[in-house]
Write a structure and sequence with these properties.
This protein is an alpha/beta fold. Helices cover 36% and strands 12% of the residues. Strands 1, 2, 3, 4, 5, 6, 7, 8, 9 and 10 form a 10-stranded parallel sheet that branches. α2 packs antiparallel against α10 and α9 packs parallel to α10. The longest helix is centred in the middle third of the chain and has 17 residues. It is globular, with a radius of gyration of 19 Å. The N and C termini lie far apart (41 Å).
């Protein structure tokens, strides 16, 4: 297929595909799916070999968020029956993080619900980072605390944080349909705050919220222009009690096409398979390892993930290897930033079309009842 040959050549050169080429990946047929995966896999192996980086989430504060993000079970007005608790103490968070590190995680992601941290919250998280680094000096720590104010990113960096996560989630043109309590521009500004402070930027998207193919390409092109080091790709987990509980728009095949498109547009960044992989990829998860070079181990913020041992078995059985603590994730040429020439996204209106509608697999959505905020052992 000429399209795939062109995309591989561009990916190996770190050259941005055209918008039309990215859209074409999303509209390839199921009959061509393995060819698409194989092509994107060549780009993935060029920059990351067969290594898979493991990341582990610690939810420092769950629920009771004042923001109205439609996809989130912690949102204002959420009726989801999730765990709700205030800030974990540094030793509690450190203990939770240690479970993930023991399971093979190279990065610990500290997440707290809310619009953004107060200065007191930054102090809390700084102490938690110190406690984690004291136990595991080599572990990477990424903070995800919402919108940052001036100087907060610098304080997190000084406390030992390595990275900061703040996702764009969806295209600028549709952002107001998903969230009204803050803007797309607010999110972009926070990522730039993190980059300006010398933190490794982590910013990605959520697919499956009813967006069009054009929206997906727009947000991925915007991410390419923003140039984070890590791009997590989440697939919506339609949790009962949230406005998007009825959005079951993804098939395993479409999820793989989305991951392939992200890899072609962002060939040399850490593409992380994040929330929702178990719900939407299901038994096809191993194929995704040919497209991504990073996954979350164990559970997510408010829902349960695949058992940690099953993750490790999947990686080994698929012929990949867990990335060790002494290995640098990103290719040498990035040096913490600097993708190839970016292309500004343009708005589009074409609707998503993906064959048969996906069936609702509500049986695969399980609210987290273990780990941080509970007396039960975490999944790692």
């Amino acid at each position: 297929m000429d399209l795939l040959n062109t995309l591989v050549e561009k990916g190996l050169r770190r050259e941005l595909p055209s918008r039309e080429e990215a859209l074409a990946v999303l509209t390839t047929s199921d009959d061509d799916l393995l060819e698409v995966v194989a092509a994107a896999g060549k780009v993935r192996r060029q920059w990351f070999g067969r290594r898979v980086k493991l990341n582990y989430l610690v939810n420092l504060k769950s629920g009771l968020c004042p923001e109205d993000c439609s996809y989130c079970s912690q949102r204002l007005g959420s009726e989801a029956g999730i765990l709700k608790y205030t800030w974990l103490k540094p030793d509690e968070a450190s203990k939770a993080a240690a479970a993930g590190v023991a399971g093979g995680a190279k990065r610990v992601c500290l997440v707290a619900s809310g619009r953004g941290p107060t200065d007191r919250d930054v102090d809390r998280v700084s102490k938690t980072i110190g406690a984690i680094k004291e136990q595991n000096a080599d572990v990477e720590v990424c903070a995800c605390l919402g919108l940052l104010s001036d100087g907060q990113a610098e304080r997190l960096k000084a406390a030992g944080a390595d990275a900061y996560n703040h996702n764009l989630n969806t295209s600028e043109s549709t952002y107001g349909d998903i969230t009204t309590t803050h803007t797309y521009a607010d999110r972009v500004e926070t990522v730039r705050h993190a980059q300006g402070a010398g933190l490794s930027a982590c910013s990605g998207l959520i697919a499956g919220m009813g967006e069009s193919d054009a929206d997906l390409v727009d947000v991925v092109f915007a991410l390419r222009a923003l140039d984070p080091d890590s791009v997590p790709v989440n697939f919506l987990i339609p949790v009962e009690g949230t406005p998007l509980a009825g959005e079951w728009n993804l098939t395993p095949q479409r999820a793989l096409r989305i991951l392939a498109m992200v890899r072609f547009v962002c060939p040399d960044v850490e593409v992380r398979l994040a929330g929702g992989r178990e719900v939407h990829l299901r038994t096809m998860q191993p194929l995704a390892l040919h497209l991504v070079n990073s996954i979350f181990l164990g559970d997510y913020l408010t829902t349960e993930g695949q058992e940690g041992k099953a993750d490790l078995d999947m990686i080994a059985d698929a012929g990949f290897e867990v990335e060790g603590a002494g290995t640098t994730t990103l290719p040498e040429h990035r040096g913490g930033g600097g993708c190839a020439t970016a292309c500004a996204p343009s708005a589009g209106a074409e609707a998503a079309s993906d064959g048969a509608a996906a069936s609702a697999r509500t049986d695969l959505v399980t609210v987290r009842r273990r780990g941080a905020g509970t007396d039960l052992a975490p999944n790692a």
